[in-house]
Fold these 3 entries.
Entry 1:
Amino acid sequence: MNGYRELIAEALESGWSFAGLYSVGPSGPVRVALAGGTGDIRLETVEPAGGALQSIVDLVPAADWDEREAHDLYGVRFEGHEPLRPLVRHDLDPAAWTVPVLGRDPYQVAVGPIHAGVIESGHFRFHLVGEKILHLDARLFYKHRGLERAAERSTLTDAARFLARACAACAVTNGVAYAQAVEESLGLRPSPELARARTILLELERVWSHLNDLSAVCAGTGLAAGAQRFAGLTERARRLNGRLTGHRFLFGAVAVGRSDLRLDAEAISFAREELAGLRAESLSGWRELVFNRSFDDRLVDVGIVRAKDARRLGATGPAARAAGVAVDVRATSPRLAYDGFAPVTSTRASGDVKSRLEQRQLELVQSVDLLESLLSRPLDASTAETGGAESAMAASRVESPRGATLCAVERDGDRLTRVHLRTGSYANWPVVAFAAVGNMLPDFPLINKSFELCYACADR
Amino acid sequence: MLTLLKDLRRLRRDLALPRPDRGRSLAVRHVDCGSCNGCEHELILASSPYADLQRFGIGIVASPRHADVLLVTGPVTTRMRSPLLTAYAAMPEPRRVVALGDCAVGTDILGSPDEIVGPADAVLPVDLRIAGCPPTPDTIAAALLELIDRR
């Protein structure tokens, strides 16, 4: 279609950023989500001619996976995306995924889909010379459950459970992104109490998630004392979730158009006390990590992603902020209770494993601070209010513990016709592959842990 | 480092977990066949100081060749069926299969029928089912102890 590439180039020029691309049905139409600087989202529609569309991957390298997925699942061809490797389809020979690395010395190491620890399933193909990584091909989507297609048969309200079950670690984020997109399309706005309920849930999710990630990086370096200390704190954070909402991962706490979560004075005071304890103990543990030289030695200058590359590849969340890209969807979320929010970045911000670890620690403290103010009074059940125009499709972005998550919904009356979820993990996986290059193979688990991405919500 | 260890010792004392009266062990290999990652997160915490599975001699091992138990999570996707069978075939006998979580047990599977084979027992003989979405670390620990007793 004429003008499509020009439209995207112009939008990028005037400050919009790429937020996702998906096909509505077989051979199109294709929608491109663009995010503006103040939190607004545009869905641009483009009709492929004869099932083919010009690729925008040269303008937006971050669209690489999106175009490959639209090709695999909906048969849209992207001219100029050469070679258009498979992403989701597994019926092709693994060679189709693999970038040929030629020469006498390079050899390959295959890892997965089953990993040695308690880790999700996915395949990594390393191309090495000696111990040095030349290139990494990630072949994920072993856990593809076709959740989007399965959800597309249900009503708007019922479909929420498919989104929530895409991923336990992002259950609240994905749920809120879906609920907000549906409400936008129905012309609903959250009441202040509903916005507060959702913001509390989002930050509770971030607290346990960041504690888990601090533990995971310690485990990645073999520092068992640190890994166990932070695993203990993760357990406490999940118990707090269970006490407040009845579920350790906050499942079922997000619904479309309303919130049933009630927190009385007793629950509020318990939560505040527990959060203060988590803050004090995580800071004490953190100080021990900071002054541990042998631990520190493993983190510095490993898995570097510079700001320029983070922007180019579409890195998001703590991974981007650790590279100095101070972008956080929470700063532009009028539907949530983040008034006056400003993203934090570490003074280091050099994009290595150490920066990503520091970033998690800073954001953990920030989340606890946010929760202390959000939990200053009891919380009551709430509903969304009317106050906007209805539309057949809408999209919403929410900051997960791993970065910006987009949810786009299209509906016909009360029925969901298309839903697309592009999570922070999905955006960051190609960045992990980039960060690995030039490092030693034994450092890969550590680099991987410093991103701590989910496979489940990328695979869906 | 000393503070970390001191904190862990204090935590251990405060929790006052009972000492095991069993002298046996269980080597567990986990295979994620398409979970939402909830079972994995809880399984990891089954080894945290609060449940501390290792005190009963229960540990996660890196290879199915070293495992007594295959712990299956998630509904089995079409793509994970073959890796799961490979892992099972690599195990020494006697071997046991545990379905961990509601997806693997088969009580509540979400997804497109063409992408999902079914619960764990659609692929392998299942010896123990641990229900929950996801089961808590305490539930996982208690169920695996029961499996030791059954052996």
Entry 2:
Amino acid sequence: MWNFPLLPDQASTFAGRVDGLYFFLVALTAFFTVMISLMVAFMAIRYRESNTKVNRDNPLPENPTMEAVWIGVPLVIVLVIFFWGVNIYFAIARPPANAVDMYVTGKQWMWKIQHPTGQREINEIHVAVGQPVRLTMISQDVIHSFYVPAFRVKQDVLPGRYSQLWFEPTKPGIYHLFCAEFCGTKHSGMIGRVVVMESADYERWLAGGSSNGGSLGQTMADAGAQIFEAQGCITCHKMDDASRAPILKGLYGKSVALNGGETVIADEQYIRESILRSGAKIVAGYGPIMPVYQNRISEDELMQLVSYIKSLGGPATGTPAATPSAAPASETKGTPAAAKPAQNVNEPSRNK
Amino acid sequence: MSNQGAGALIDATVRPRRLARIFSRDHTVIAKQFFAMSIFFLFAGGLLALFVRWQLGFPGSAVPVPFNFLMTRTMAPGGVIAPDAFNGMFTLHATFMVYFAVLPMLVGALPNFVLPLQIGSPRMAFPTLGMLSFWLSLLGGLLMIATYFVDGGPASTGWTAYAPLAAVSHYTGSSAGQNLWILSLAILGIGLILGAANQVVTIVNHRAPGLTMFRLPLTVWSFLVTGLLVLLALPVITAAVGMLLMDRTLGTSFFVPAGLSVSGSPLAGYAGGGQPLLWQHLFWFFGHPVVYIMILPGMGVVSDVLAVFARKPLFGYRAMIYSTFAIAGLGWLVWGHHMFQSGMNPLLGTTFMASTMAIAIPSGVKVFGWLATLWRGQIRFGLPMLFALAFLLTFTVGGLSGIFMASTPVDAFIHDTYFIVGHIHYVLFGGSLFAIFAAIAYWFPKATGRMLGERLGRLHFWLTLAAFNCTFFPMHILGIGGHMRRIYDPTVYAFLRDLQPVNTFITISAITLGFAQLLLVANIFLSLKNGRRAEPNPWRAATLEWTLPSPPGDGAFAVVPEVHRWPYDYSLPNAIEDYLPQTSLHVNGTGTGTDS
């Protein structure tokens, strides 16, 4: 009757798995809906008042065995759905170690993307097929939500806090990118696209540069390094002298002891917060001497700084803790040698 | 206020002055006032929904002539609904329906009328609180209507009012409208809290002698649980909107983080340091229980209607009560499932996933209990029964589609799409509203002394059922196709263009559904005038309200009844009639479950 597909394309490694669970739920729902409808219809007809030739004996007001069955069976079904769902959920929450970092800034009503290699895009994001991508996202104003139906992923993009999302495209093509969280007047116009290319095409695109949004002209880490110098961070955060400020080399992903006695993982969110509101989480042994950079650095620049600090390397033990879940590193998917040190693409060893 | 039992009797017998008749403390009058208010907002909210549907079904075409009178020139230049007006309309649609149609019906009209009659009390515990509850709700409603006409238009941030969109007026065109929206909800919240307190105390303190807790009909049990939920949930939203108002007007930063910008330049006037997610936690901590506030009374009514019209004791009476408590209790632990995509730690998400799925179990107990009640019954198809059976089916669909949202990976895909819109309408329209229709048909004779017209009623039922499914079922298909909710113009998305015929179909069905509701109103008015006179007990039901004349009139239960049995003594083997009223002393062969 209508010419539309029931589901969008399956174009990421999640899509098949999510759809599998989805179709199981559809089957389950259809089964129970049909069953209950038939039962209601059957009883409505058979036990209608005018039907006098029917057995109405022994109407049970209670029946513990039967009740146990209809508590037990749904319980088992629910447990199956639960463990099936958790399995996929954790996969979606754990980016693999070989994921490429990209940075997304949302604003009313536009997406801005920065590639670690310096390309910038607006409402468009180019990625290579088979290459996992990890997005670090933030909003400059209200809450947005990064939604690519063909990848079956969606993640809210919050102001004041990084959120993360990863996917691995499996099919070259152009896919819709939407804002799924209502964000004001032109919410419905906040549209972008994800361009998935074969690796060779992608390399060519990287070399040619973005036609839409320009380029930093250098890697994000290099741009971050410039800001690091221009803002004078370097006067205290020295590469080899921890007397005035902590050494940032090797910080990313490390567990940091704070003045208050707690420890935090030095992830993107921690680095961002420490730059903007330096007094919030002070490293043990230091005083609150760092100036506040709130309103002095844009979100895009902050991401370059974060990228720079990440490029200084992480702890040698393995994958940086990517999500707040602090998932065990051994579970990361798709990397045969999970013990390999983190491969940040933006790691042009910048030991000064 | 007078708290002695005699106080109300004096009120009822002394002829009240005109002002006292308007600001009545009589629970049946308050119930009628709530009913009228709720029906008005039902239609106002429905009209707004049709405007929203018009834009989605026929994007960019002018609103047809007789209905464009509500559009100012700024709202609809050239008759075409503008984006901001569209956003305001879906916001007000949900606000009207949830806060001013369904809640006042289920926490106002229904308990005020039914509750005292079913527990054999001449009045509610606090008549003055009851009166205040209505007038505060109405004041809230009037303020909410006013938001439509103020400068900048109504609130346009969705009924969820997520911060910082709703916390900073620069982010939407609406300023005064959003502030009034907040004030209105705060006032309504206080009104409903008063009503709920009244309702809970009445159940606990004013039951007739012999009416033990485990002799209460399910409807009363559901009022008790709902009342408790209102008392715990509404203060949260009332406080939260207060914080939101301070963010908007006093420059606090409860929900506003630092470093925001507005169209490129830094946002001035906020210290920052707030948490947008705090709003979501507060909102959904209220917002999920409120879903149960809107469905539990319906479940109670349906339980009773099914028993009466199948001439059978309700199956698993105790299990039904415990499952009501289980649903209400679990309802406090599931709010996080609205926030799976907001950046939640997956371990926390997993617990919310488990608690949400657990609700399937008490819900299943209810559905199977209702089915078992029908088993070997002697089923009569009065209007209330038709709506109760429809409730059973639509609620099942709405409940089952909820499991999709509980499964986080699937939710990641369908969250904020039309799948959710379809789901919530199966629960709220197919659930709450069908139960409300059943309740209207069931208690109409008691309230008015006339039977609700059967023929027009059946036409209304079948049209509503068909149009309801044609409107809301295809929304699931849209959602799975990737159609987001709250989008102004679906045709700007290339891949949604193929789905546009579905949108058009939904709009036509929705218009049919909307106009079908006029039949209900017509039926009510026609039946009030010409309806068949109702006997005291037209449904041959066992609960106490049916021992009174229809309508009960002044001085109901002037003689306090004595209760001797539970409310479900239908089809007793040796009885002369096929039921025994709760007041019956008649000792009978089996006496199935007559007491606890």
Entry 3:
Amino acid sequence: MRELEFRPKSKIRELLGEKFILLNALVALIAILLIFIFIFKEALPIFTDPEIMQEASVDKLMLKQSFYEGQEPRFSWQPNSSVPKYSLFPLFLGTLKAALVAMLFAVPLGVGAAIYSSEFASRRMREIIKPTIELLAAIPSVVLGFFALIVLASLFQEIFGLTFRLNAINAGIALGLAVVPVIFTVAEDAMTSVPQSLREAAIALGANPWQVSITMVFPAAMPGIAAGVVLGFGRAIGETMIVLMASGNAAIISWSFVESVRTFSATIAAELAEVVFGSAHYSVLFFIGTILFIFTFIINLGGDIVLFRLKERMQGKSK
Amino acid sequence: MTAPSGSEIKVIPIELMPKTRGYLPRGLTFLAVAIIILMLLIIMTNIILNGIGVIDWGFLSRPPEDGMTAGGIFPAIFGTVALVILMVIAVVPVGVLAAIYLQEYTRPDSYLMRVIRVAINNLAGVPSIVFGLFGLGFFVGFVGGGMDKIFGNSQGPVWGQPAIIWASLTMALLTLPVVIVSTEEALRTIPRELKEASYALGGTKLQTIGRIILPQAMPGILTGAILAVSRGAGEVAPIMFTGAAYYLPYLPSHLHDQFMVLGYHIYVMATQSPDVEKTKPILYGTVLVLMVLSFMLNFVAILIRSNMRKKRAGG
């Protein structure tokens, strides 16, 4: 064992040490602020710069436009045509379609698996299920995108005889695979955090385990399950590589789920590399980034608050 | 009260409870588990079967040849390793110190603590493509461009362009929450008595942190670093504009060089290859290498963590 030594205490060193450690703790906070500032800064010209506003002002991004005399006003995303068109609506629709498919696929699977793991599975079974689903989360999204592009797309096309290999369903299902672990983890956590003593008490009073689940555990854990679903939706909206590779990236307006879609995130990834620094197109891409940031920020904050309250309640801290 | 109060959990008399034993839900939810595991198995089998054939020493040690339809992936492996090493150097000290501040210096209900915690959780939820935008705007444009101005690099930008240092720093921010959360978990397991003993012997707070807390938290710090590496090795969106290159004939030798990386290489080969069928075997091989890397790292992290949890449970 090392000899203990008593150094004279230095108040200054302790104080500086604490301040230095505090500085590191603030990095996350500063990062969030800087991310917002630096992304919004590049998007700002579409609100202020008259030259850029000619091409891409907020109403041009949001409302239907006609580009020559007599053309019926329409939504159109064609940033590289001779008259650049920057309507965000086709991208919004594409993002929503892909995310919707992902949620339809991931919510039943994620919540279902969470219920099985927390309510039915033996302890041993649970110790297999949890790490396995966590393993799914460890697959890099570029690998899921690759799988959807090379394998899933051909499979679906063959089975359903689709015209477009890459479409909203294909991208959505691959996206769903990325969302399942998010929903599962949060929902399972919420259900298993219901105190064991309560379950035991109800069983002692004569309820069978499933009656305990539906009358007590689910209502109590519902906010947590909902938070899991909402956080999963945030993930589906922000995920990039999967939709970039598997969606076909056509910015069209269509309500069909077997046609190609182009999402917000994929648009940034596909176009930023070729864009002229400081151009209208550049600002619009950062504006899309700002939308993504704000949207996911609100979702995460909301989910966070719900989970925080749930945790307090389960630990019996609230009144 | 240690349990939720009656107003939140509805009490239903047993007679009024639905007469069910839950066989149908049990079957349905098991089906959900089975489908998830089946899909995972399908993906892994497909990649292993198609990828294993191309992996040999030449594949791992040679650069791509003939427009990526032949040769190996050595520059991408090298670039990935370089990226995560730089990232770990940046993220681990900051993450560990942040966790120490949150666990050892603040009270859990203080206002500052809550704000920082919200920031960490939110940072974990920021879409990776937004990190890419931020890396380009802040690190490449603001920091790099600023450094060029200060050093007066007149022959064009040296630092103010996509480079491995900016990609690593962007990735470090992305993985910061992973390191903080993992370290915090380890800090919570350290017995109070150890710290008290240190103080009783006259140790100061910094001495206690340096000699008692940090060594005790090592497994947690290691887990966090490994999980961060696994995440950083697989993410593509944050580095697309901050340093990753489509193809490079040389390896990065300086912090301001661009680099090749496995994930981006997969994306490029899968979407922009001139001859998809000819690229496919190499593509599968690359995916397999990345998958094995991620899974191995995660497996090690899970082992360390469960070991740590057992130790805590055992007292």
